[in-house]
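FAQ
Q: What does a multi-component entry look like?
A: The components come first, one per line:
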Amino acid sequence: MLTNFFCFQANLSHPPPVYTSEMSQSEQKIIRKAAKGDRAAFRQLVLEHSHAMFRLAWRLSGDESAAEDIVQEAFIKAWRKLSAFRMDSSFKSWLHRITVNTAMDYLRKHVRRKQFETPEPEWESTDHAADLPDTGKQIDISRQTQAAMMDLSEAERTAMLLKHYEGHSIEEVARIMEITTGACKQNIFRAVKKMRIALRPLVAT
Amino acid sequence: MRHITDEDLTLLYYGEHDDSSLAVMVAESEELSARYDALCDELKLADAYQPPRRGDDYGAEVWQQISSKLAQDDSKPSDRLKNWLGSLLQPRLSLAGALSIALVAVLAFTLGRNGSQNPGSGPAAPATATQIALADIDSGRLLTHSVSAHLEQVNLVLTQFVNTSATSEKETEYATDMLVANRLYRQAAESQGNHKLAAFLADLEPLLIELAYQAQSGSTATRERMQQEVKDGLLFRVRVMNKQLNKTDISV
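Then the predicted structure of the entire assembly, as tokens:
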């Protein structure tokens, strides 16, 4: 009984990062310099946050080249808006908000579900995946998860991935999505419900 | 014992449930444990949704790609000025502004009503300067004027919406602001017994909800359908209602 209790925290080898609004003094200094137009300082921010932004953009779009475009576009927007950034909020959350908005704009302009035309989604093995019996099954699960994610509405998918994969608190997710915490919870609940229905058949196999 | 929903278990899974005793309840109940285990098993599979790896120099690649664009940006200082001027010309209504107007209207009405009710129900508390000032305000007129300003903003946003082909960040932002303000005004109108105005604002709400949320996620077809709806009558109704409000102190 209760074999999975607190399984998320206990079993996930790479738990999602938990973001807080606290920034180190040095990061604040870099951001301030970048906000004044210091490109070398902004380069440092790009180097530091590119991977995280790519992960987010890829999960939102489900497409590798789209994610690369989104990351670049989001950084350009960040550069333009940096002077409006408030130091008392989390820079990562701020970047995530820009990435989410950029991804939404991008997806509206481009044909959706392009990724399903490609035969094999790229698979990255994780420690977690090592528990699974074989690679064929892993790819199957990856595909089905991806398909289930892309079947969610944009709001549900965004809320789900900011909560489940990026580890933001519900309050943070709501702030990033610019919705109420109540609406945010509802999006997460709906997303979890749909994901569970889609993934349930794979549990027993 | 209260019923534990799947939503409760989801919040527990993410460590966000307010009730700290829930974990104990789940641990002690076979049925709840089974449900929680199922949730964990199913969500564990979602972790398979992993992005392709980027190389260690991915950040440098991104910088290389964007640095030339940033340089172009820098060489066009007029763009920043243009954006700034553009933002000045955009329909302007901040959420804070809308809320404060709506709150003053609601507060004025509430204080006015409370002031006129129950004169002998108990010792009156000394009135504050704000209360005295607000009591002098005709809450009905205040609401009418505030809604009129609100409808002007709605008119601008809707006009912009029907004339643009793609949803912008700003558009969604404005629609969200309008939605919040609209709800407050509707509630104020209902409290004042101005049912016609309340009904009109209630009619506006579904569209504002769609604009704030659906327009973001909807397809081009959805946007076109919404634009048609706005063109077919809603925009006209907003203008007519605003004219009526502006005409007088008419009670709509």
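Q: Is there any commentary attached?
A: Sometimes. For this entry: The first helix of chain A runs from residue 7 to 11.
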